[in-house]
Amino acid sequence: GNSVTQMEGPVTLSEEAFLTINCTYTATGYPSLFWYVQYPGEGLQLLLKATKADDKGSNKGFEATYRKETTSFHLEKGSVQVSDSAVYFCALSSGGYQKVTFGIGTKLQVIP
Amino acid sequence: EAGVVQSPRYKIIEKKQPVAFWCNPISGHNTLYWYLQNLGQGPELLIRYENEEAVDDSQLPKDRFSAERLKGVDSTLKIQPAELGDSAVYLCASSLGASRNTGELFFGEGSRLTVL
Asked: 3-class SS at A83?
């Protein structure tokens, strides 16, 4: 079956540091890949997505590239802010978006 | 536009008691999901509806869990009787129907259940 593996947190960074959160996946066929973010006290919301190999998703300064050869979709940001403190979930969907599988989430804490 | 609305936000009950959670999806979203999120884990699908039809309930523990979406709009998830291990956050999400789906799920804030 499908699965998503992402690095365990928490990840603590100073403001303006570079961020990488690793995500690898196992899936049959050609899944779409997503990063969701959950800010404190809020529901999960889509951060970015990529639907085919070599696509790059980007939003709010975050980027992730769909790497089929390494089955990875690592999340990166060049300079994090305190407001980026949240839990980040890597996810994939297959079967025409019908089934979405999530990773365990990585908590990011950015300190001033 | 209103987002996905869930209630109650928090519920504390004794074990063996029943509990129900309600979800109102975004208007026009035909697909509705119930997810279970344990502490420190990602969401796990319990059931998915296309309009009023449950098209994927393979992960729903049917001995104690039930769900309905009678008119293809709002939905209720029930647990009866609750067990200690049911303590978790129950998430509702919605999305456009299969033919228009972009893959984006819209989540509510969740209902946190504590079973004592």
From this structure: helix
